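Please check this protein record:
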Amino acid sequence: MNKFQGTGVALVTPFNTDGSVDYDGLKNLINHLVDGGIDYLVSLGTTGETATMTKEEKKKVWAFTAEINNNRLPLVAGIGGNDTVAVANDIQEFDATGYSAILSVSPYYNKPTQEGIYQHYKYLAESSPLDLLLYNVPGRTASNMSSETICRLAHDFKNVIGIKDACGNFDQFNQIMRDKPEDFLLISGDDPITLPMIALGASGIISVVGNALPRQFSDMIRQCLAGDFKAALPAHLSLVEFTRLAFAEGNPAGVKAALKHLNICGDTVRLPLVKASSALTQAIVTEIEKQSQFA
């Protein structure tokens, strides 16, 4: 599972001003991240605005991402939903060329029981040709995957290889680390708490702010994984304000404002999301300029 150690980045989906997918911007972004030293890419997670993309658009973005990446980094595809059979069908129909795993969010809106969550992932694990990364994000799904459910899945299915956990609950993280199989990965789903999660034993992060600042973020994560938290701390603290600003008006509006300033892609988002306000954009630009000492 070493391919998913370190810094993964949940790619934004760049859009043209007319709302169409900006493939030139996506190419720029992929190359920016590869050159920035990150460890793997996640295509079409929440940050990719998948809720507003058609199936045909998703297929094209996945294929394009694999083409531009050209096997330089491991690739993960985000395929999730709240209709178990439909998600399994999407996974089975997915062209996995160039991809190593699927990241699948816990079912949202339905508010299933823990047994329902288990049975959902059991169905996916038995259907998927690729390894699965679970994704727990209670702030979006309205339900939390318990540590018991997570570890039950980890022990029962060899192709369930890890979890991106954005619950923010260190008691839950403690229990996962205590009860999981040795090679099962706990991956941070929250940029600002990745350092303490790695101190606990997490394998790294699937990051949002890494879209804009891949070198600063991935260098800091590597120092953490090497156990040199004293060296990592200044960079960690320097990113606190940028990270706060990046999420201040929702994801990915803030990080897209940063990417526009960096001339990587535009800041267009699809409704119901809206662009970052001018005041927030200026604050983000100011913070980016402060990061040059860590580049």
About this structure: The domain at 2-226 is CATH 3.20.20.70 (TIM Barrel). The radius of gyration is 18 Å.
